[in-house]
Amino acid sequence: MVAGHVRGALGLAEDVEQAAARSAKRHREFVRDRLGVVYDAGRVRRVAEAIRQAVQAKDDPADLINVALAERGAGPSSRLR
Fold first, then answer.
1. Can you tell which superkingdom this protein's organism belongs to (predicted)?
2. pLDDT tens digit string along 20-78?
3. How many domains is the chain partitioned into structurally?
4. Does residue 9 fall inside a structural domain?
5. Where in the sequence is the domain holding 65, given as residue range(s)?
6. Which long-range CB contacts under 8 A does 54-57 form with residues at least 24 apart?
7. Could you tell me if residue 46 is inside a domain?
């Protein structure tokens, strides 16, 4: 996701990728540190499961985003973490 954004911002071809998996991991850690985000695999799985269940009845991306925000306890004015 980050690599795609950087590729687009720099006007690079779609096939340009990060040099190594270790670099990608380190870059994700830098972004998380910068944004103050803590990675929690269990929480990610809970949010993904809530979205998976919601997609059975909803197909509007905004509805699915709202499900994810509700699952993680974020209100509309909360900073995404």
1. Bacteria
2. 778 888 888 988 999 898 989 998 999 999 999 999 999 899 999 999 999 887 555 44
3. 2
4. yes
5. 41-71
6. none
7. yes
